[in-house]
Amino acid sequence: MKNKRYDILSPDGFSIFFDKTFKTKEDAMTNFFEWKKRYEQQGYCSSNNGRIALNELEQHCKLIEVD
């Protein structure tokens, strides 16, 4: 039986970590918050649907289980 792995998809549906996945949901979320810090200086994350305020970014991303 294969262990579960987790990833986070951006608002545009792409992995925010490229080829990296995580053993736990908690590890994935910890890394999400580190990734989110990249956008602090500009104050928003840009997506195909426009700007997303950082305080709303988590609701626009999706934690998924991967094989």
Give the helices and strands, then pairings.
Elements (H helix, E strand, L loop, with lengths): L4 E5 L15 H12 L7 E4 L2 E4 L3 H4 L1 E5 L1
Antiparallel strand pairs: 1-4, 2-3
What is the subunit arrangement here? single chain
User: Which range best describes the helical content: under 10%, 10-25%, 25-40%, 40-55%, 55-70% or over 70%?
Assistant: 10-25%
Report the uncertain regions. Answer: none
β-strand amount: 25-35%
Mean pLDDT: 95
Number of DSSP helices? 2
First-to-last CA distance: 11 Å
Strand order of the largest sheet: 1-4
- Cα-based radius of gyration, to the nearest Å: 12 Å
Structure class: alpha+beta
So what's the overall shape?
Answer: elongated
Largest sheet: 2 strands, antiparallel
The arrangement of helices and strands along the chain is: EHEEHE
Number of strand segments: 4
